[in-house]
Write a structure and sequence with these properties.
The structure is a homodimer. Chain A is α+β, with helices and mostly antiparallel strands. Chain A has one domain: 2-Layer Sandwich (Alpha-D-Glucose-1,6-Bisphosphate, Chain A, domain 4), CATH 3.30.530.20. Chain A has three helices and seven strands; from the N terminus they run βααββββββα. A seven-stranded antiparallel sheet of chain A has the order 1-7-6-5-4-3-2. The relative contact order of chain A is 0.23. Chains A, B: Pfam families: AHSA1. Chains A, B: This is SRPBCC domain-containing protein.
Chain lengths: 147, 147
């Protein structure tokens, strides 16, 4: 099992604000994909849709301002059963976001792609919170072919 | 041992051009750090310097237009002994760049940071080749604290 790891730090932003961007459909639509629907509270299922397809995530855990954990319950075969883990902490007036997409069966080329793409979406989350403007799909940053 | 994985695809660019950007100090200075010196040919050592410090890389392998491999011989403790592996291939008029930073001892927070930062530097490489303008240090994209 292999994992995608990332970290960003969001300037002049409280953990509460980052947590809101991870646990409300409006927040998620501001940085990941504008087509976000469902129930982002613990126990709910969030439907994320992109031009090429999408993911359904079951919300396994939400600890306010600290921790969010999702399990992929529908989407590409390589994603189903993997988990997305978010941990937040304060460092002066920054919020540090530790990200792990855990449990990939193999380090396939699609995993390489998703690792780079996650980085651009984390930068979109950072930008949304720092400037008010994110880059969610369909106006996302392209890292490879139209993706 | 854990690895950082990424992939970008560079539009309208031959593998030869990407290979040049990985195996010449001028090319490397265009996307990673402007302070790049040394010998980027196989068997040489390249010195990459950034405002907070730097890395020395021994060039283990260079297969024109296909493969480049470096070993970190000096730098932060977590980096020394790890390897940076680049594989290139053509896909229509794109060049696909498969990147692996292999052999981290543990998935420490610094590894999370470097994973995100590598993504931004790979986007800098892509931008350099597609537009002529990269974002090497010290004008690099910041993902966390001043980094």
């Amino acid at each position: 099992m292999v994992d995608i790891l990332h970290r960003v730090a969001v300037a002049r932003t409280s953990p509460e604000k980052v947590y809101d961007a991870l646990t409300t459909t409006d927040g998620l639509a501001g940085w990941w994909t504008t087509d976000t629907t469902g129930d982002a509270a613990e126990g709910g299922v969030i439907a994320f849709r992109f031009p090429p397809g999408g993911f359904d995530m079951k919300v396994l855990e939400t600890t306010p301002s600290e921790h969010v954990r999702w399990e992929v319950v529908d989407g590409p075969d390589e994603w189903v059963g993997t988990t997305i883990d978010w941990r937040l902490r304060t460092d002066d007036d920054w919020t540090v976001v530790m990200f792990e997409h855990q449990g990939w069966a193999e380090p396939v080329e699609f995993m390489h792609h998703c690792s780079t793409k996650w980085a651009t979406y984390l930068m979109s989350l950072k930008s949304l919170l720092e400037t008010g403007v994110g880059a969610p799909a369909p106006r996302d940053v392209h890292v490879a072919f139209p993706d």
